[in-house]
Amino acid sequence: MVDVPYDGIAGTAIPPAEVPDVELYHPKSWLTRYVFSQDAKIIAIQYSLTASAIGLVALVLSWLMRLQLGFPGTFSFIDANQYLQFITMHGMIMVIYLLTALFLGGFGNYLIPLMVGARDMVFPYVNMLSYWVYLLAVLVLASTFFVPGGPTGAGWTLYPPQAILSGTPGQDWGIVLMLASLILFIIGFTMGGLNYVVTVLQARTRGMTLMRLPLTVWGIFTATVMALLAFPALFVGSVMLLLDRLLGTSFFMPALIEMGQLSKYGGGSPLLFQHLFWFFGHPEVYIVALPAFGIVSDLISTHARKNIFGYRMMVWAIVAIGALSFVVWAHHMYVSGMYPYFGYFFATTTLIIAIPTAIKVYNWVLTLWRGDIHLTVPMLFALGFIITFVNGGLTGLFLGNVVVDVPLSDTMFVVAHFHMVMGVAPIMVVLGAIYHWYPKVTGRMLNAGLGKFHFWVTFLGAYLIFFPMHYLGLLGVPRRYFELGDAAFIPPSAHSLNAFITVVALTVGFAQMTFLFNLVWSLFEGEPSGGNPWRATSLEWQTPETPPGHGNWGKELPIVYRWAYDYSVPGAAQDFIPQNQPPTNTGAVQGAAS
Amino acid sequence: MAVALILLLVAIGSVLFHLYSPWWWTPIATDWSYIDHTINITFWITGFVFTAVIAFMAYCVFRFHHKEGRRADYNPENKRLEWWLSVGTGIGVAAMLAPGLVVWHQFVTVPADATEIEVMGQQWQWSFRLPGKDSRLGTSDVRNISPENPMGLNRDDPHGQDDVVIENGDLHLPIGKPVKVLLRSVDVLHDFYVPEFRAKMDMVPGMVTYFWIKPIRTGTFDVLCAELCGAAHYQMRAKVIVEEESDYHAWLGQQKTFAELSGRNAVVRATYQSGGK
């Protein structure tokens, strides 16, 4: 079949350009090495640990809200206000402070320089600041649990007018600090994001053309470009809402009644906020999804010992999804009262985005076809991702198709859909990726037996939680309800299903403790992994030291001769050929490179 | 091969759950069965794709899992296959989108003979307004709201005098007559949600939104709020009663008009101010 290094677009295997080596910042003390570090690998770990810590808070909040939903009236320590505060904080933490920070700040920082063959990010000092501003944003967010009135209960969408009026919990401090925290997060992210983009564009090593980049880098890169374009909409929305709340401006506030009195507001538009929010919010879905798409492609390829099928199509699908995701935002607003004729346009764009997304799914499963599938823990999580993502993606076709959305919007169907597609599916990838790259970060393997237990409980449990939940929504059960109360259309069996979901959710939640245990235990007792335990091709596995040292590559930067997917090349001695292995050494391709 | 079997069982179990689960949509009470049909089409197409993809994946895991000596194919791309899959997906998407847009067109095209009624949301209750003999609703403004005028009607508008105002009561609708439901809020976002109607729309302070329905079945239905509106969101309830036209008119005859309510309130206020003398 193909016996030369397959090479995306460029025809030549010979590296085209010289990349000058850079002068690195060398830390002089323990403090600048491990705390105020400018090394992207340390910053990545700082980002990941902070995101995971605040993510655990969100996990506990989900238990509390599930206890209330499953067994209403049983827990006197949860009242209606707290319930709204729990759902708001859970959603905001999960979407922004956990998933966005973990994929871009965590995986992006660790993997981009290593995968493109750079010594570090191009602006290390700004990269360090990015983390510390992010940490400040997280601390401000967490502080809302301790201020008078508690955190905001406006829902993670923070829709005005209610977000800043007195009928909503957290109207005093909670909403102000939430908006301040978001503004900080965006400032911090922008500093990191510029780094990721410029590093991918400017600091690739000799021979690393764009079409030789692993899909992980393509996913993170495209997501970062999108985030840099989308977050400003949330930024201005947050600033304007803060002004409405603190200075009494009326960007989003029409004349209205507050607590029985005509308020001081007038002339603003609540829909304007929704447009700004979703102009950010929809790309945000893909800001979380695209890194997951990229990473899972590499997991599948590596553990099936087969090149990713249709690499070029995969790259274009990532770029197409990224571009299209900026013209679909109002599908979150079909029943918002916006101009109804928008529905035609946004339904069409939304369903068109299904095509590049479907291509990605086909190419993942076609990569498995005639592979040599090693059912390692990362591969299991990748398979779990495909199922949950296909499920969640397909229910998106219901909600995107404007008229179908009308009965389903604001019901548990929506909750089930977005949890499946941007909760469970990306977290499957996060977990698979941690099992995959942990050996590179620590030099030790995670325990595979515990990992398999963790996978099956998490995957099957999460599916049992969210798949039946769609049918509650189909029945008409609304979301964001503290109690369903008396409603003739809700049968007793729906309450039993809610109780069942709660029991499974608690089980899945506690099963994560085995993962935490595994992370800590393996750090000391895990089997030493060596530099390339999965026999993978991409550059991060070819570092001279594991974990990679300061500057990543020792004296010489690696030179790249091929794409990242030379697995099971016919005639090659091994079933993988690293990207930095020159063609003359592969045997099979000797003399064929020209 | 246990892993392949479990993956397959997830797909089969999902289909069986769909077919046999007791949780399904409520019996419809308006003629928006087109929406239900569109959902059914979507279920068929997506269900097929879901089962096919997972079954293929399970087969791959079963057939190609690692054994000693197995080596994967080297197969960078197959333009023809990728092209056909894209076209097939495009057809499937069009098969869902086209009926969806046709029904959406019906949804946004209000029949000329629809009666306009008004639903007003406020934290955390519903009010309703029906046109009087002139078949027109009078104008309103949030700035007019007072204890005597809870819906903020314009006192100088002659069309508003005969409007039937129902504060904190239930809404009645005649069967078989198209209704354009105008939606208004005086404080925060709400959403007038009756599961059996299928149609719903947010209510936004500062603007009037709408949807239209034609009730096709008598009965009493729960009204819920479907857009988070603060602490007592979950308690914002009312009922809609769809009834035969004669029953509807009998009910309507007992309701108070805006003019009557204003007069009554004026009397009450005068009585109060004069200390009941």
Q: Mind explaining what this structure looks like?
A:
The complex is a heterodimer of chains A (594) and B (277). Chain A has 594 residues and is an all-alpha fold. Chain A contains 15 helices and 2 strands. Chain A has helices at 30-35, 40-70, 80-116, 124-143, 174-202, 215-246, 270-303, 311-324, 342-352, 354-368, 377-400, 402-408, 412-442, 448-475, 492-525; strands spanning 257-258, 261-262. Chain A has a two-stranded antiparallel sheet with strand order 1-2. In chain A, helix 3 (80-116) runs antiparallel to helix 6 and helix 6 (215-246) runs parallel beside helix 8. Chain B is α+β, with helices and mostly antiparallel strands and 277 residues long. Chain B is 40% helix and 20% strand. Chain B is built from 6 helices and 10 strands; from the N terminus they run αααββαββββββββαα. Chain B is elongated, with a radius of gyration of 27 Å. The N and C termini of chain B lie far apart (91 Å). Chains A and B meet through helix 3, strand 1, helix 8, helix 9 and helix 10 of A and helix 1, helix 2, helix 3, strand 7 and strand 9 of B.
What is the CA-based Rg of chain A, rounded? 24 Å
Q: What Rg of chain B is obtained from the alpha carbons, in whole angstroms?
A: 27 Å
For the biggest sheet of chain A, the summary is: 2 strands, antiparallel
- The CATH topology of the largest domain in chain A is given as Cytochrome C Oxidase, Chain A
Classified by CATH, the class of the largest domain in chain B is: Mainly Beta
Task: Work out the oligomeric state of the chains in this entry.
Answer: heterodimer
Order of helix and strand elements from N to C terminus of chain B: HHHEEHEEEEEEEEHH
The computed structural class of chain B is: alpha+beta
Percent helix range of chain B:
25-40%
Taken together, the total number of domains of chain B comes to 2
- Relevant CATH superfamily of the largest domain in chain B: Cupredoxins -  blue copper proteins
